[in-house]
Amino acid sequence: MLVELSVMEQRYQAVLAVVQDGWRVVEVARRLGVSRQSVHNWIARYEREGLAALPTVPTVRRPARTRSLPSSKS
Fold first, then answer.
1. Are 13 and 4 within 8 A, CB to CB?
2. What is the model's pTM?
């Protein structure tokens, strides 16, 4: 029987895999399909604030680059 894990549970498992089981961050990131930086962030938040820090936290992303369109000269 397959059980879907919550986001928090997935992040907790990722943190434990690195901190307790000695997995490499790059391998955990690859298996979860996330960046290495995300895994590092989860570990840092977990070490600072514990399990309560792992639920989905909105990330701040850079705005998309916009290109100016060439002006039409008639």
1. no
2. 0.69
